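Q: Protein A?
A:
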Amino acid sequence: MPLKEQWILLISTPIYIVVILAEIILSNIQLRKFYSVKETILNVYLSVLNGGIDVLFRIIYVGVLLWFYEHRIIETWSSALLYWVAIFIAEDFMYYWEHRFDHKIRLFWAVHVTHHSSEEFNLTTGFRSSVFQPLYRFIYFIPLALLGFSPLDIIFVYAATQIYGILVHTQYIDKMPAWFETIFVSPSHHRVHHASNIRYLDRNMGMVLIIWDKFFGTFEEERKDENIVYGLTKPLDEKHHPVKIVTHEWQSIWNDLKKPIGLKTKLKYLYMPPGWSHDGSTKTSDQLRAELNND
């Protein structure tokens, strides 16, 4: 593990331990039931699976990024400050698009859906990883390598921003100051992202900066007149099964591919948004939202 990542681990681990224990204790004292033993264990289990795949696959994706870095179009940056500011902004921008495609292309949603499957929302939900995401996430960072950002720095910045991405998984912070919520993702923004309420589906995709959602039309404010329901629009039958929690959407895709339809239509079940169906029997988030707005 590179030295920078070791520092990230050394810094983040005690932070996670302190804030998670504090949230568990406080939520239990207040009888708010933000945590359950089964869900918390499942979150850790999924994080370990994701981390294991990332470590095993790292030599390949680092090698790919190094190849593009060697063919970079920007040889050097004029200053270290500009370099680090630029890599942060560029990586957050690319993460937004990765996250958006994870929600809008069913093949990738089959991977990402695991992160959204919990009906709880707490700090350990941030560790509820999309298990197979390391197998393709690096593709979105290839443009960064071409722009002259070192692959090890790309990995470091992603790990650093992940700390922030985990800490916004809380119900204990209502709203941040207005200036903050104009620029940065807040817990309020991310609660919307994890909601199964129709108006909130596929909203607030940013990791650190919320400006991408506001610019590209995927932003939604948390409303006080509507209680958030966490989890999926169709709850799982076996939500704690260690295998099905990862594979259930793949099984649904396979069931759709077995339908007596043409090849072109079958392919649409892979690349169209989740909920798309050839006969209209199920609907996408955009279709559901349009119906809600027309009521």
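Q: Protein B?
A:
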Amino acid sequence: MQSVSLGYSPCPNDTFIFFAMTHGKVEGGNLSFSEQLADVEALNLKALNRELDVTKVSYHALGFLRDNYCLLRSGSALGNGCGPLIVSKDACSMEELRNKKIAIPGKLTTAYLLLQLYDPAFRFRPDTIQPMPFDKIMNSVVSGESDAGLIIHEGRFTFASYGLRQVLDLGTWWENETSLPIPLGGIMARRSLGDERIRAIDGILKKSIEFAFSNRSQPLKYIKEHAQELSDEVIKQHIDLYVNAYSLDLGDKGERAVNEFLSRAEAAGIIPPSNQPLFAS
């Protein structure tokens, strides 16, 4: 039996899709998985340090990982109407925020790359861009520590309850620009695992997602253990939005969306170019 280190976030979409894979609900062959749950930016950094065999990462971080990791076809968070939002306490325009303090969920997050693609004026400046854990962002805006926040995950369902206003939906901007779904996060595997083993892991992950779709009540306890602050309704909304047909398999349209995202980031000089294939052979 070979142990594979596995990283994913405690967010409901990840605990939903990885539940069966890590709880013996699907056949793993000669592979076993030792999971680590962490914030997505922490996972991005772990991948940069090659600490994990298989891990969820932001598609922004993927741009820096392609020499050592390849993308799995299953497990992605990608879709329509699910992009990150800019929120503030008071009504304002994006132009008014150019020199203001903006809380972001990490410099390697897809959300922050989207913000830079939207307007290069938001490239990192330590006096204006404030990286912090995603679950601290809305309180930072409410307290006045930040003038605006770049929110992800369940924040799009709960920001109004904090008295915050939406300034911009970056996912809608991307969809209008490209007519493609927005690639938020994907599952990467170390190339050193070898193509055969990587394909096997991809297949196990797909079966794990299929199990979750067919047995929705079974992962619920596990999901709630890691998302205790969320109501059942918000958990359901979160999973319904971020786990979809693209999570089972990126397909041609999903692959086009990922390539478009990476090519725009390369052209903007945000990520380095790579000659490595996106997927295992």
